[in-house]
UniProtKB/TrEMBL annotation:
Classification via PANTHER family: BLR6921 PROTEIN, MAJOR FACILITATOR SUPERFAMILY MULTIDRUG TRANSPORTER MFSC
Biased composition, class Basic and acidic residues, residue ranges: 436-445
Record Pfam families: MFS_1 (PF07690)
Name by which UniProt lists this protein: MFS transporter
Gene3D superfamilies to which the protein is assigned, alphabetical: MFS general substrate transporter like domains (1.20.1250.20), Multidrug resistance protein D (1.20.1720.10)
Region (Disordered): 433-454
Transmembrane domains' residue ranges: 12-31, 43-62, 68-91, 103-124, 130-152, 164-184, 196-213, 234-257, 263-282, 294-314, 326-351, 371-390, 410-428
Sorted UniProt keywords: Antibiotic resistance, Cell membrane, Membrane, Transmembrane, Transmembrane helix, Transport
Matching CDD domains: MFS_MMR_MDR_like
Compartments reported by the entry: Cell membrane
Topology class, membrane: Multi-pass membrane protein
Ranges of residues in domain Major facilitator superfamily (MFS) profile: 1-432
Organism of this sequence: Streptomyces ehimensis
Length: 454
């Protein structure tokens, strides 16, 4: 059944994407807190099974409303699943070297998943139809649930766990949804439109009220001690900024590969595989080897700068550029830099958090990614559109105008990654503890600043 037969308008097609991102971004903090209250295993199982069920509902959708509702359900259960996974890694791997390896694998899967998903989704759509891009999640969900049941330990019951902060949930979720929606609207409606200013303003007010509330309630949704640690706070900021740059690269190179170079969706997805490979190599081979030996900022700062250099190389694209001589080298450098820098950033986002705060600390890593992605969409799309419009007044320069817009946005993305490097260098102070007898086989333990014990 085609989208036209299902009654899709252009707005409805946009909501297929927006419904997921709003539900996911708005409920991440709740999902993280549920992981703390229920335990990682239960939260992961509920999230996995719920996500698979929502995917089945979407694959069987008979109308646009049904599909949009299924996508929103996917976002809800995804918001429960992702923080539980990250906090489980943090809880299971406390040794510095093992923790670095575990977060390296997590970073590799996160970085490589986007590129592989683009290619796999395009291939499934061409070979079968769009429904199978959702239905295949049922198979993956069954495998994941079996793995969780078999490998994840069941936590001991802790009857002292605090109750949910319902007012905080309502304020945080509605504030994040309003803020993310407003930023998403800015990419199409402009920064000064009512559809942008009203939800962004409402989101800021609600989030400010949420922050004030967290100081007074006995069991806050987001204990402010989670943000007070400079290493965790610096990691959240650096991740959010880095996602803006990374998102800009994927967004505009996707446009460039398909619109300008004329590649099919499958070919464009395959074109991103090298950056996935570079990210995997950096996350598993480079990133894990450095944190036990160097201060975190000495890994993250240069990593983000290398990624920025890759984006600067990509600004050389023209309507006649070759994928092999411009796009591929730029993507490889960007992937190596981001893979190296994001691995310790993910680790620091949960390092030193109390066991009862591990889920919400993990959720803040994902929340920073979601907010960064929304800001990247709005900011970089606006920059690209403005630059494109500037050149469109000249006859015969439509393609040149598009590429100029993409290139200008990539310049800005590189600058934002440079700011991420600066933030990591100035804010993050974590360093591995130097042991008096390095010949011992016992692995080094991380040096936790006093704030990490908050």
């Amino acid at each position: 059944m085609t989208s036209r037969r299902m009654g899709f308008s252009d707005g409805a097609r946009q909501w297929v994407i927006t419904a997921y991102s709003l539900a996911f971004g708005g409920l991440l903090m709740l999902g993280g807190r549920l992981a703390d209250l229920w335990g990682h295993k239960r939260a992961m199982l509920v999230g996995t099974i719920g996500f698979a069920g929502a995917s089945a509902l979407g694959g069987a959708a008979l109308s646009s409303g049904m599909l949009i509702g299924a996508r929103a359900l996917q976002g809800i259960f995804g918001a429960m699943l992702v923080p539980a996974v990250l906090s489980l890694i943090s809880a299971m791997f406390t040794d510095t070297r093992e923790r670095a390896k575990a977060f390296g694998v997590f970073g590799a899967l996160s970085g490589g998943g986007a590129a592989i998903g683009l290619m796999l989704g395009g291939a499934i759509t061409q070979a079968l139809n769009w429904r199978w891009t959702l239905l295949i999640n049922v198979f993956f969900g069954a495998l994941a649930a079996a793995g969780i049941l078999r490998t994840v330990p069941t936590p001991a019951v802790d009857r002292a766990r605090p109750r949910l902060d319902v007012p905080g949930i309502l304020l945080a979720s509605s504030g994040l949804i309003g803020f993310v929606y407003g930023l998403s609207h800015a990419s199409s409606g402009g920064w000064t439109s009512t559809g942008t200013l009203v939800p962004v303003g409402a989101g800021v007010v609600l989030l400010a009220a949420f922050a004030a509330l967290q100081r007074r309630v006995a069991s806050p949704l987001l204990p402010l001690r989670v943000l007070a640690d400079r290493n965790r706070g610096g990691a959240y900021l650096a991740v959010g900024l880095a996602v803006i740059g990374n998102f800009g690269m994927y967004l505009f190179l996707t446009y460039y590969l398909q619109t300008v170079l004329g590649l099919s969706p499958v070919q464009a997805g395959a074109g991103f595989l090298p950056i996935a490979a570079a990210s995997v190599i950096a996350s598993t081979q480079i990133g894990p080897r450095l944190p036990p030996r160097l201060p975190a900022r000495a890994v993250m700062g240069p990593g983000f700068l290398i990624a920025a250099a890759g984006l600067l190389f990509l600004t050389r694209i023209t309507p006649d550029s070759s994928y092999w001589t411009v796009v591929l080298p730029g993507m490889l450098v960007t992937g190596l830099g981001l893979g190296t820098a994001l691995m310790p950033a993910f680790s620091l986002g949960t390092l030193g958090a109390r066991p009862e705060d591990a889920g919400i600390a993990s959720a803040m890593v994902n929340t920073s990614q979601q907010v960064g992605g929304a800001m990247g969409t709005a900011l970089l799309n606006t920059i690209a559109a403005t630059s494109t419009t500037y050149l469109r007044g000249h006859p015969g320069q439509a393609t040149e105008a598009l590429v100029h817009g993409y290139s200008t946005a990539l310049w800005w993305a590189a600058g934002i990654l440079a700011i991420a490097a600066l933030a990591a260098t100035l804010l993050i102070s974590h360093a591995p503890r130097t042991r008096p007898h390095p010949e011992t086989r016992e692995p080094c333990q991380p040096d936790r600043t006093p704030a990490a014990h908050n």
